[in-house]
Design brief:
This protein has 11 helices and 6 strands. The chain has about 210 residues and is an alpha/beta fold. α1 packs across α2, α2 crosses α11 and α4 packs across α11. A 6-stranded mixed beta sheet has the order 1-6-5-4-2-3, sandwiched between helices. α10 links the parallel β5 and β6. It has one domain: 3-Layer(aba) Sandwich (Rossmann fold), CATH 3.40.50.10230. The protein starts with 6 loop residues before the first helix and ends with a helix. Helices cover about 55% and strands about 10% of the residues. The longest helix is centred in the N-terminal third of the chain and has 16 residues. It holds the Pfam family CbiC. Pathway: Cofactor biosynthesis; adenosylcobalamin biosynthesis. GO terms for molecular function: cobalt-precorrin-8 methylmutase activity; precorrin-8X methylmutase activity. One of its GO terms (biological process) is cobalamin biosynthetic process.
């Protein structure tokens, strides 16, 4: 009978397999840990090629988490995937505004998506903000617009929406900025990827 491993042992063994199979990558150690966490979450080694790190994002993200910040997600799924005990260690919080009544009303009044209206709400926060976008390219489009208009300056943008419509183009908008970003270029991504990136930084900021 095959041995049944404990959860932490399974994770440890999974990361050993990933380390064996990933091969050579041109990333620093902090970025490599993020990549491995994403591969662990997805079992997809394509992220070795399409997860792009710009402007020292992992170090900036870890620094922000140690000081305390707000993580804004575009889905409740991404919000649910963030490790809450680790999140609270630095006095951080995570929110998803997509279901808020004021966001729904603003979206209807302006004729925009709820994701866009949620970004506008997040832009009014006084705390440092990390965006973790895994579903809605329109959220990235609004982030780009607000940055260009001088109304938003996030600590970090995790740009990982998945899909076919405006997904590739929205990610390219984020890559043009000098703001730290982690982007899954191409069509791949998802809420699980966005949450995995956050967790990888949380575990480095606050080792378990």
């Amino acid at each position: 009978m095959q041995e049944i491993l404990k959860p932490m042992d399974i994770e440890k063994r999974s990361f050993e397999i990933i380390s064996q199979e990933i091969g050579s990558v041109d990333l620093n150690e902090k970025e490599l840990l993020v990549l491995k966490r994403v591969i662990h979450t997805t079992a997809d080694f394509d992220y070795k090629e399409n997860l792009v790190f710009r402007n020292n994002p992992v170090e900036k993200g870890i620094e922000a988490l140690k000081k305390g910040c707000v993580i804004v997600t575009d889905t409740n799924m991404a919000l649910a995937g963030i490790n809450k005990p680790s999140l609270k260690k630095g006095g951080n919080s995570a929110v998803c505004y997509i279901g808020d009544e004021d966001v729904a009303y603003a979206a209807s009044e302006k004729g925009v998506t709820r994701a866009q209206a949620a970004v506008e709400k997040a832009a009014k926060l006084n705390e440092p903000v990390i965006f973790a976008i895994g579903n809605a390219p329109t959220a990235l489009i609004k982030i780009d617009e607000l940055i260009n208009n001088g109304k938003l300056n996030p600590v970090l943008i995790i740009a990982c929406p998945v899909g076919f419509v405006n997904v590739v183009e929205s990610k390219e908008l984020i890559l043009k900025h000098n703001i730290p970003s982690i982007t899954s270029v191409g069509r791949k991504g998802g809420s699980n990827v966005a949450a995995a990136v956050i967790n990888a930084m949380l575990y480095q900021a606050f080792p378990r």
